[in-house]
Amino acid sequence: MEKSAITAQITALRAAYAAFNRGDMDAAVEALDAHIEWSEPAEFPGGGTYHGREGRSNIFRSRVPHGRM
């Protein structure tokens, strides 16, 4: 992988974490593939399989302490 591609990925990841930290879940999942499938263990609160960016952002929203968003 080229250094510029790695740099772009690092930049996207940092932006996603920054968005999550400020409570912007839509921006936090923007870099994910639109057709992502994300599975959480059934033992976890809200466990299950989620589809798409909206599904993933819903997981984030369910785990952010109230009043933080």
Give a verbal description of the structure:
There is one protein chain. This protein is mainly α and 69 residues long. It has helices spanning 3-21, 25-28, 52-63; strands at 37-40, 48-51. The relative contact order is 0.15. The chain has a single domain (3-63), classed as Nuclear Transport Factor 2, Chain: A, CATH 3.10.450.50. It has 3 helices and 2 strands; from the N terminus they run ααββα. 51% of the residues lie in helices and 12% in strands. It is globular. β1 (37-40) and β2 (48-51) form a beta hairpin. A two-stranded antiparallel sheet has the order 1-2.
Global morphology: globular
Rg result: 13 Å
**Major sheet attributes:** 2 strands, antiparallel
Mean pLDDT: 84
End-to-end separation: 36 Å
**Secondary structural class:** mainly alpha
Strand order of the largest sheet: 1-2
How do the helices and strands line up, and which of them pair or pack?
Layout: H1 3-21, H2 25-28, E1 37-40, E2 48-51, H3 52-63
Antiparallel strand pairs: 1-2
